[in-house]
Amino acid sequence: MDNAPTARRSFNRRRLFTGIAGVAAGTLVGGLVIPNAAAAAQDGHGLRIVDRNENAGRLQYYRFATDAIGWDPAVNVLLPDGYHTSGKRYPVLYLLHGGAGDFRDFHLHHNIIGLTAGREMIVVMPDGGTAGWYSNPVNTNVGPRDWETFHMAQLLPWIESNFRTFAEYDGRAVAGFSMGGFGALKYAAKYYGHFCSVSSHSGPASLRRDFGLVVHWANVSSGAAELGGGTVYGAPLWDEARVSADNPMERLPSYHHKRIFLAAGTSPDPINWFDTVNETQVLAGQREFRGALHNAGIPHEFHEVPGGHFVRPELLQADINGMIGRMKRAG
Length: 331
Prior knowledge:
Rossmann fold; transferase
């Protein structure tokens, strides 16, 4: 089904509240809000800002019109303490939400503001679709849903044009949970020169294992929740080249010289079927991926911990510490 009407209704409510916040943050002159010094972001790279809240605090909000997506996706940009006065450039973490989530997940549910307090890094948290799989789909019946294009060809250069970042390999990390953990592994491999650190928290790392169970799940979930019956990888026949291009197991050389952080649960909830299937498959795929990394002589950090399919704040905190140690220091 087409989720766009729901997304637009939600957008209109958010626009109302963020518009009110924008008035509080700026100066009202002749009916127009003149934003304060923090409001420096401009259109560009195929993105047109249709809503924003730049309030001189750490968390900045933007919503865009883009030809890549058939509705207006949003992004939260979390700035470090002192950003507005320091004059420094900062490394950037692109943090990707899981399925059925959106750009607000890490802010509302996972305390990303607290976890990054006092840390000199920018965190970019974009929409990725209900079941977008961080991909440009093979087919869609609801208009464009080219999430990979939005993130890599539009949003990333827009961030670097509008914020003080290091536009280089050692200045960027990518991480995510579940579907977003897969997206992080995929982007780090396909765009090798973009990210020096990649982290997958309960994210699939092997698309073809168990007769392609993850590919089938991506097709079924995207068809039902994102693409109106379309699919990410094609059905009944897959676009095999796309599967191979996205599959971490088939991109091992692309993980050389990166910091790699993997986490998965070892004891999914036996009562929750969905949780059990998700984390059981995630754990098996990450173990396969880790074995391949080991055989290829590629260093990596991994954590197998009790529990099922959810974000573990202590591991996210440890991961953030490791990213900061790997990326270029602010200055």
